Amino acid sequence: MQRDLPGGSAENDLEIVELTRPSDLVIRTTSGPTPFTYRYRFEGDGTGTQLHLAAAVELSGIAGAMGPLATRAVKRGVDSNFSDLKRILEG
């Protein structure tokens, strides 16, 4: 996965940890600057699909020392990614 961060371009390699079709997907990084595990859950609601995310991010170094500030930055990035995904899927 390649993305743009405030400090420049970053790349993480990912692995699928769990896949239970059609409702659950868990991925985690195996390399890169931001170690995380994302647990996705897909739920049909009769008119579409709700996507839920539980994210665990392990920040170290300067980012880890920044605590809540780093947490907010990560959340903004995840929210932005979901907004982009929604825009792409809804065309």
Structural description of this entry:
The protein is an alpha+beta fold. It has a single domain (2-90), classed as START domain (Alpha-D-Glucose-1,6-Bisphosphate, Chain A, domain 4), CATH 3.30.530.20. Helix content is 31%, strand content 46%. The protein has helices at 61-65, 68-90; strands spanning 2-5, 8-11, 13-20, 24-31, 36-44, 49-57. The strands form 2 sheets. The chain has a 4-stranded antiparallel beta sheet with strand order 3-4-5-6, with no helix packed on it. It has a two-stranded antiparallel sheet with strand order 1-2. The longest helix is centred in the last third of the chain and has 23 residues, at 68-90. It is globular, with a radius of gyration of 14 Å. The mean pLDDT is 83.
Number of helical elements: 2
Number of domains: 1
Helix content: 25-40%
Helix/strand order = EEEEEEHH
- Compute the average pLDDT: 83
Question: What's the layout of helices and strands?
Answer:
Blueprint: E1 2-5, E2 8-11, E3 13-20, E4 24-31, E5 36-44, E6 49-57, H1 61-65, H2 68-90
